[in-house]
Amino acid sequence: MQLSVILPCYNAAAFVGERVQSLDTFLKETGLEYELVAVDDGSTDSTAEILEGLGLPRLRVLRGDRNRGKYGALKLGIAAAEGECCLFTDADVPYELEAIPYMNELVVERGFQLVIGDRTLRGASYRSELPFVRRLLTSLFTLCIRLFVTGGLWDTQCGLKALRRDVAKRLFPLVHDEGFAGDVELLYIALTYNLEIKRVPVRLQYQAPSSVNSVRDGWRMLVALFSIRSRSRRGDYRDAELEQLSHQDYWNAE
Fold first, then answer.
1. For residue range 124-160, what is the model confidence (pLDDT) as tens digits?
2. Domain boundaries defined on the chain
3. In angstroms, what CA-CA distances link 61 with 9, 37, 39, 119, 206?
4. Contacts of 171 (CB under 8 A, 6+ apart)
5. Radius of gyration of the CA atoms of the chain, in A
6. If DSSP codes are grouped into helix, strand and coil, which group holds residue 122?
7. What is the pLDDT of residues 47-63, one digit of tens each?
8. Rounded to an integer, what distance in angstroms lies between the CA atom of residue 152 and that of residue 197?
9. In this structure, which topology does domain 3-253 adopt according to CATH?
10. Could you give the CA distance from residue 19 to residue 24 in angstroms, rounded to a whole number?
């Protein structure tokens, strides 16, 4: 199978049925061999029932035992994924769908270990107008990430990322933060192992109401940044197979 699309879902009943149906229809038309893996992250509404009621043959619905956070759900989905390319996006499938087969090609055909959407690149379009306070806090947080964690990567929080299956299966068990800071931690570990990261522009086409609280979640993210550095110093990200995989890919490229 070429592609697994993993969708972490939490209290998404208002939109998840229509968005997943649209995604499935689009992927059918591409001719890709694919599966959809939707992970209900302990929703208190009818998200899981709506997904199961769609009756899509290429959709698997997994249910978490409790609300763990975005990366808690993604861990379940990645562990179950069978595609050569493991791609994940938000439950509202916000970005232009044409990016999905392109990212799959970069992973499966061209061998990139990690491909990430970047809303700061030329050609990207992010139409949502954020309030001034949230824009300011987002800018400050991005600066902190670049200074202390991810170097030259500007957009760590874009919800569209794709990984080679072998890389995904090794990286995700190393991610400790199960909330939104998991994006930063994932990229930090990938950079630690000098994995090949390809950035691609993305264009927003749909956006469900956000549950992000700028002050509360921003503070949590800043605390998480220091935790990432502490884990690194303790050696929590050591993985012999990932190190071997990184070196193997390097020499094969020579």
1. 776 555 555 555 555 656 665 655 555 555 677 788 9
2. 3-253
3. 10, 6, 6, 29, 22
4. 163, 186, 189, 190, 242
5. 17
6. coil
7. 999 999 999 999 999 99
8. 11
9. Spore Coat Polysaccharide Biosynthesis Protein SpsA; Chain A (3.90.550)
10. 9
